[in-house]
Amino acid sequence: MIETRFKETExxxxxxxxxxxxxxxxxxxxxxxxxxxYQWKSQGIPFLRAREIVSLFNxxxxxxxxxxxxxxxxxxxxLYGVPAKGDILVTGVGTxxxxxxxxxxxxxxxxxxxxxxxxNMGPIVSKYIYYQLLYPIVKKQxxxxxxxxxxxxxxxxxxRTVIFPCPDYEEQQKIADALTSVDELISGIKExxxxxxxxxxxxxxxxxxxxxxxxxxxxxxxxxxxNEIGTIFPNNCLSRDQLCSTGTIRDIHYGDxxxxxxxxxxxxxxxxxxxxxxxxxxxxxxESIEQGDIIFADTAEDETVGKAIELINVSDxxxxxxxxxxxxxSFKFAERFxxxxxxxxxxxxxxxxxxxxxxxxxxxxxxxxxxKVSYPLxxxxxxxxxxxxxxxxSEIEALENKLHKYEQIKQGMMQQxxxxxxx
Length: 423
Known about the structure:
- It is a single chain.
- This protein has about 425 residues and is an alpha+beta fold.
- Helix content is about 35%, strand content about 20%.
- The protein is elongated, with a radius of gyration of 27 Å.
- The relative contact order is 0.12.
């Protein structure tokens, strides 16, 4: 560690040995001629827009890959040039300032207006600038570009004047290497999580359909409607504004089912919201959720409508909230089995044809009760299946916790390294 002395600059305190520089000092900044939609192809040279850069940043697949012909690519390359290895593409519309460092694997073209190209003229480490573009010192300068306008844009002229803290080249490289190492670790964990999720999805499609039977079980499965195996209880219509963080009666809100919860919710270990104290009286003598009850989200903006959770380890009073359907089986199922099978593809594929609405989809209680579910009569087989899937979920959860830990470490490293607080 080196004890750092700081000096004040237009971007705040930076180490005495660093300088406040502008991107235009090191990069030739420009864009390219727009490619019209009629020139798009289904194969050829990859064509990147802002949305593809966001996908690359988030490690998500392109929604619809686009290409241009090799002839057009060569023409544009000759007239306007194309990004080279070490150049940085930055989104100029939508989500402003998302960067991508060109790796030089294969030729591609980028769209005018949506993307700005920082062509590295040196001496500067592109990956160091990549991380500075993501840190508040620089990021806020980019975001403020669109302040006060309906659609923010990050322009070539603005890019030239963006100020960043600049150490010498060797220190830039060391900072970039340190942050790249933790990024690679994070990427590896994300890939492993996706692999484990894919394995679990495959196990669910085999075990929850009876296509693959566990060796010790051979008794028949049955198929019944939800109406034949359970009963619906009334939910409430309390909004988020009517919930709080303390109280005596907890509430299952459909938004939490869709965004926070997996198939199984451990009520003893989950941070569930409470009904505001002044509203509790009307619920004191009503039925409350019991162990093994199922709560469906009856409304969603996409195909997640009908997502379900099974409640386990229930001890406090819990009620079923806004846009939910509260279902209780009439006879015993193995713990966690219904939670998994009611979220399986084999069950869920029945929902979309029955859902109504355009922007927001909903399923009614009568429609839900008519849905069919197949299950083994032997509770021990149900439990064995649920145990296998729970073990997989636990492994995925452990990896997600590890991922969260390293993402926090990365944020701390950026805060220290990109400001020179630690050198």
